[in-house]
Design goal:
With 254 residues, this protein is α+β, with helices and mostly antiparallel strands. The protein has helices at 42-57, 69-90, 138-144, 150-154, 192-195, 200-207, 213-226, and strands at residues 2-10, 20-25, 30-37, 98-99, 101-106, 110-116, 120-125, 128-131, 175-180, 186-190, 233-242.
Length: 254
């Protein structure tokens, strides 16, 4: 598989510190976005811990068959949850901290995503732009129950309340997503500092501009800040230049 990628994080306009963290290891096809929460810089600690621990659990990706990747991602997120949770118990100023985690691995012709929280993954294929992940949030639960429309959810006063995160409880169950990739696909990973500021059609429009991943990432952050920059903004964009072929026993990045 061949791809072009870019990533960037920005404090935004309103916040004084950045509690987002990200990882882009293109050689391994590994990408992570984590959006921390908690006072006294605890959110920054939680997101950094999640990225470091998950990446450490996945360090042997290249040597493992892709059939094992699903379990590795699942357990990596759970190990990060355990470490962060234990720290909230042992350090009073870290109580209540946690983080989202959106973890993506690219295979030959496929992707696998592990998800906790409301950071998101999208895919643009041709002119079809769709959200791969589903938010673990209060408003998403209300939408699923038919009590709110998607439009109402965006402006709801509890739109930033998440119902599942890494580190807040003794255990966590990540959602897992996987599917095929095609040459020309564009994958977007982002914290809600971006998706809370731009509508899906605005995200899609930027990804269809000329210039490639670095230009798109920079444009996303500029636009989010222009619209208020209410939160930290983290963006990873990956353009699939050649998807390759998928095999059930293929190695990662083959």
């Amino acid at each position: 598989m061949h791809f072009t990628c870019a990533a960037r994080t920005d404090v935004g306009v309103v916040r004084s510190g950045n509690e987002d963290s990200y990882l882009m290891q293109s050689a391994k096809g590994l990408f992570i976005v984590a959006d921390g929460m908690g006072g006294h810089a605890a959110g920054e600690v939680a997101s950094e811990m999640a990225v470091e621990i998950i990446a450490g659990e996945l360090k042997s990706l290249r040597e493992r068959p892709s059939s094992e990747a699903l379990d590795l991602v699942y357990e990596g997120i759970r190990r990060a949850n355990d470490a962060i949770y234990q720290r909230t118990l042992s350090e009073q100023d870290k109580r209540g901290m946690g983080t989202t985690a959106t973890v993506m691995i690219l295979f030959a012709g496929r992707y696998l995503i592990g998800q906790v929280g409301d950071s998101r993954a999208y895919i643009l294929r041709g002119d079809r732009f769709h959200q791969v992940t589903r938010d673990h949030s209060y408003v998403q639960e209300q939408v699923d129950a038919g009590l709110l429309t998607s439009e109402q959810a965006r402006t709801h006063p509890y739109s930033n309340v998440i119902t599942r995160c890494v580190g807040a409880n003794e255990d966590v169950v990540p959602d897992l997503y996987y599917g095929a990739l095609e040459s020309g696909d564009i994958v977007l990973l982002a914290s809600d500092g971006l998706t809370g500021m731009l509508e899906d059609d605005q995200l899609s429009k930027i990804l269809q501009e000329e210039g490639g991943p670095q230009l798109w990432v920079d444009r996303f952050i500029t636009e989010a800040n222009h619209r208020g920059g209410l939160d930290n903004i983290t963006v990873i964009a990956v353009r699939i230049d050649a998807a390759g072929t998928a095999s059930s026993q293929s190695s990662l990045m083959s």
